[in-house]
Design a protein that fits this description.
heterodimer, A: 362 residues, alpha/beta, disordered N terminus, disordered C terminus, B: 311 residues, alpha+beta, 8-stranded mixed sheet, 5-stranded mixed sheet, 10 helices, 28% strand, globular
């Protein structure tokens, strides 16, 4: 089994794009495939372009194709956000964008080369009903699912079931918190809403404040069970940190905010793994404070080891014998984090034993 | 080196191992398969194609047998591009056609240096392009195969690649896909034909692949400049009827056949407008292959004129 350094060209390239100079054609062949499988082909192209790395024409084409797809995606997001904002305005709710939609509309480097599928918004819980009904009036319908799944979302999670537009096919995820209500880590959404800020020149669009954007991304990555695009999400975090890290006072604000919201663990994982894998420049004091807020001892070492496995590129060439086991453990952990044990057991039993409809192909 | 220069053992070794790196001029497909019908199909259909030893492949595809019990019972074939399966498995007999459909999928979903139209493309000896955009069932494949046998250079029977920068039309001169009755029609026209054994019960009916003419393969690196944009429709028993189309109408019809218009946006609009403006635009209804081929022959001699319906 190839060693990590040898097989994983992608993480090396993301952490130091200058290593791309002089990469052979067979090397590019493998790198392009690792990047595409990991959802990072566009990001790789953006990095190569930003650092003015000379790329041979044959792989350069692939980067260009991915850039065009991302560009088209961003155009669609801009259109879609306008529709969503109108529907929310009619409900008297300000459009507060999360994740990809926020990165695109705010023109953040985290959007570069990235393909996003849904529009995510955060609304006050007490306005959920009217938001849902106004979105339905505008043509978004909840995706078909049975009563159990509906309850799963509405009562136990942090978002409504995804809503899909009947004509355009686009999806809106309406969040009322950034982590599940039933989870072991409880975030107070009022704190997030309080520090939300408008996008400069963004019309009437809003996003979370910079530290909250980072913490949301970290919480999403390190609580999630789906590690299929973990490296991509870590790369988003890296881009956010590099961009916001230049603002005076950001790091102190970030660690204080993590403490205030109860998100010390995800922040620790984010800073530890971004610095280790992607060479994100993080000041020592911030690392120390995050470390103090994170897990200690054996738990820390075990989690970091499992996360490193989960953060390998999503390509056959990067798998180690341990990867499936690590991913399985992370999957279980994410469910453990989401809900109390008795509910978790019931949930997993139901998922395993009931026949589900086959998922439609992409 | 070309595929025909490999002996059976070497071909088998590459397909079962790291993959056969097939040079398709515009792209390199690295193909892996353990299935004998895929080996045979490649040996016959791609005999004249060169191999690429650069170590870089654009599409890493694999056609293999089904998983688990489906390897032996109600056998299946699967198509994967670098581990991702875009289609459900198909019956095992369709393994070779699945390779062709899969390669079409790869190109049409990724190659965004081109506006990609669902159209056949052929060229005159002086590299003027005849584009035939048409939906399935219009007789496009039969017409394309017959034109190739009548001496037109084949660029593609499925995918017309319009270069976003130059407006030139490119194709890959890959095997043609014949369906149902057209298999016998083309056999009946004689000539130097090599076909794969027909495979029945696909979603398109019975299909067989026809090897591209060697002259077409030799010319695969040469694009063609816009010449004619003709929308063909086969109608049994009909006399040839050709009408001229306006640019706006032809544009809308052609845009309907574009795979990646949405991704390319404004670039697609500009290059398609350029194609339409530089081409002679017609819709043709025909019932007799020889009659319509003769009309195209007249076009080639620059004696095209619109022929209204008789009577």
């Amino acid at each position: 089994m190839p060693g990590r350094a040898q097989a994983d060209l992608l993480t090396s390239a993301l952490s130091d794009p200058s290593t791309l100079a002089g990469l052979s054609l067979p090397g590019w062949d493998l790198l392009i495939r690792q990047a595409r499988s990991s959802g990072l082909l566009g990001r790789l192209g953006a990095l190569a372009s930003e650092r003015a790395v000379a790329v041979p024409e044959r792989p350069a084409r692939h980067l260009r194709w991915a850039a065009r797809e991302a560009e088209a995606c961003h155009g669609e997001i801009r259109c879609e956000v306008a529709w969503v904002a109108e529907a929310l305005a009619s409900a008297g709710v300000r459009p507060l964008l999360l994740k990809g939609a926020a990165y695109v509309m705010a023109g953040l480097p985290a959007a570069a080369g990235r393909f996003f599928e849904d529009i995510d918004v955060l609304v006050p819980r007490e306005r959920l009903g009217i938001v849902e009904s106004r979105l339905q009036l505008a043509g978004w319908m909840p995706k078909r699912m049975d009563a159990y799944d509906q309850r799963y979302y509405r009562r136990w999670m942090h978002e409504l079931p995804p809503m899909q537009h009947v004509e355009r096919g686009t999806t809106v995820d309406v969040h009322f918190n950034i982590l599940p209500e039933t989870g072991r880590v409880r975030v107070d959404p009022a704190q997030l809403l309080e520090r939300a800020q408008p996008i400069p020149d963004g019309g009437r669009l809003w996003t979370l404040c910079a530290p909250d954007m980072v913490l949301h991304s970290a919480a999403h990555l390190f609580h999630d069970g789906e590690f299929t695009h973990a490296l991509r999400d870590l790369s988003d975090l890296d881009r956010l940190l590099r961009h916001f890290g230049e603002r005076p006072g950001f790091w102190a604000d970030l660690t204080a905010r993590a403490h205030g919201l109860g998100l010390g663990h995800p922040l620790f994982y984010a800073l530890a793994l971004c610095t280790e894998l992607l060479a994100t420049p993080v000041p020592e004091p911030a690392l120390d404070q995050a470390s103090a807020q994170g897990p200690q001892g054996v738990a820390r070492r075990a989690m970091l080891a499992a996360l490193r496995e989960g953060l390998r590129p999503d390509h056959g060439s990067c798998r180690s014998p341990v990867t499936p086991l690590a991913r399985q453990l992370l999957f279980l952990r994410s469910h453990w984090l989401k809900m109390p044990l008795w509910r978790l057991t019931r949930h997993l039993v139901r998922k395993a034993w009931l026949r589900r409809e086959p998922v439609a192909e992409r | 080196m070309r595929v025909r220069d490999l002996d059976d053992r070497e071909l088998h070794s590459r397909l079962s191992g790291d993959g056969l790196a097939l040079d398709l001029a515009l792209f390199t497909a690295r193909i892996r398969s353990h299935l004998p019908e895929v080996h045979d199909g490649i040996r016959r259909m791609y005999a004249d194609f060169p191999l690429d030893d650069s170590g870089f492949g654009d599409f890493h595809v694999a056609v293999e047998g089904g998983a688990g019990v489906r390897r032996f019972w109600r056998r299946q074939a699967t198509f994967a591009i670098d581990g991702f399966e875009p289609f459900r498995p198909l019956p095992r007999a369709q393994a070779y056609p699945m390779l062709e459909w899969g390669l079409n999928w790869c190109i049409s979903t990724r190659a965004h240096d081109f506006l990609i139209l669902h159209a056949a493309v052929l060229a005159t000896p002086d590299d003027r392009a005849l584009l035939l955009p048409a939906p399935p069932g219009s007789g496009k494949s039969t017409l394309t195969a017959a034109l190739m046998l009548a001496g037109w250079r084949l660029l593609s029977d499925e995918l017309a690649l319009i270069d976003l920068g130059t407006g030139d039309v490119h194709g890959l001169a890959r095997p043609l896909s014949l369906k149902n009755a057209s298999i016998d029609v083309i056999r009946g026209r004689g000539g130097d034909l090599a076909m794969t054994p027909p495979v029945a019960d696909t979603t398109k009916g019975t299909v067989a692949a026809l090897r591209p003419a060697p002259e077409s393969v030799r010319g695969m690196e040469r694009p063609a400049r816009p010449g004619w944009l003709v929308f063909p429709q086969f109608q049994a028993g009909a006399a040839l009827r050709v009408e001229s189309l306006g640019t706006a109408q032809a544009f809308m019809y052609a845009a309907d056949h574009a795979f990646n218009y949405g991704v390319l946006g404004e670039r697609a609009f500009r290059v398609l407008a350029g194609l339409v403006e530089r081409s002679a635009l017609h819709a043709a209804v025909y019932g007799d292959l020889d009659e319509v081929i003769a009309w195209f022959g007249d076009c080639r001699e620059e004696a095209c004129r619109a022929r209204p319906s008789a009577g």
